[in-house]
Amino acid sequence: MQLEEIKKLFEEEKEKIQSLEDLEKLRQTFLGKKGLISQLFKELKNIDPALRKEFGQKINRLREEVENFIRQKREELQQQLLEEKLRSERVDITLPARIVPPLGSKHPISATIEEIVEIFKQMGFSVETGPEIEKEEYNFDKLNIPKEHPARDMQDTFYVNKPGYLLRTHTSPVQVRTMLKKQPPIQIIAPGRVYRRDDDPTHSPMFFQVEGLVVNENVNFANMMFVLREFLRRFFEAEVPVRFRPSYFPFTEPSAEVDIGCVICQGKGCRVCKGTGWLEVLGAGMVHPNVLQACGIDPDKYQGFAFGLGVDRFAMLKYGIDNIKLFYENDVRFLKQFSSL
Ligand code: PHE
To answer: 108-338: what CATH class?
Structure first.
């Protein structure tokens, strides 16, 4: 191709450049090893020596022209790209954040406690609390469990360095605190953490109980049965079968353990109820006269009933959880399943 033709072609082609890729193609066409301009240089040797110098200069000028164009165009295109990028990545810091920070959800134990408390509140109970590091006297002595009494072995206790104190093994010391503080009528529940040296799939060394105490004139066992049946019906939102079994607690007489028909197998017998069709969910009984006496309440004038339930057990049954440890590992994958609570 003749120099003039190449020049003309270049003038046409340079108008079509839109991108860096186009520009690179143009460079190869004209300046590449086998490009049009390189071809011209190769022809130099065939040219009349008298004209060679002039021709050589012409090609050089053309090459410079093409090179300059490419340099300028490249800068221009790169600048354009940069501006586009800046425009598209521009952050408007005045806009409100689009991402809502992930919210936690209620722990199933908290949700269960709230639900239990709500039911008892509707039945006229108020809420009391007590310390987790408790006086041995309140956890045992005043509950008719004197020192050296074998009943202390019923609950494997964590003792603390301070003599006379322990980690409460049940919420029953809140009964004591309430009675020492006020005379009947008493109608309270006491939710909270308790501690025992126990550790297996159904026992955790720390777990939750809700205690109940009613003291008044003319309080009887039938009142207790009604309250507990009503509570269970409301909690499980169904007519669950309930049975009262005679049992023993030092602080109640008579005492009972309360079972419900297994909610997992509907009483047919399964792993959870160990084939019996029944699940123990509550300890209860009439407050022992010794306990009333020790707490400054006249047992000839007043009677009371008390009960204690394990919150973890209720939560496991309600939400179909088969290992108590899941509540205390704080694995988000577990907890997330309760985000609707
Ligand atoms: N405190 C008993 C326990 O933890 C439960 C209970 C409370 C039993 C009140 C009777 C009355 O096992």
So the answer is: alpha beta
276 Cα: distance to centroid of ligand 1 (angstroms): 22
Percentage, residues of the chain above pLDDT 90: 68
Q: Residue 134 phi/psi, 5° resolution?
A: -115, 160
| Domain assignments of the chain as residue spans, ordered by start | 3-88, 108-338
Q: Is 157 in the pocket of ligand 1 (CB under 6 A)?
A: no
Tokens at residue 16, please? 């079509």
Q: pLDDT tier at 208 (50, 70, 90 boundaries)?
A: very high
What global pTM score does this model have?
0.70
Q: Is the CB of 284 under 6 A from ligand 1?
A: yes
The tokens for 246 are: 């005679």
CB 279 within 8 A of CB 260: yes
Atom of ligand 1 nearest to the CA of 255: 10
Cis peptide before 254 (omega within 30 of 0): yes
- Count how many Cα atoms sit within 13 Å of the Cα of residue 159 in the half-sphere of its side chain: 8
214 and 223 Cβ atoms separated by less than 8 Å = yes
Nearest CA to ligand 1 atom 7: 308
Give the per-residue pLDDT at 290.
Answer: 97
What are the CA-CA distances from residue 209 to residues 121, 189, 194, 232, 308 (Å)?
16, 10, 7, 15, 7
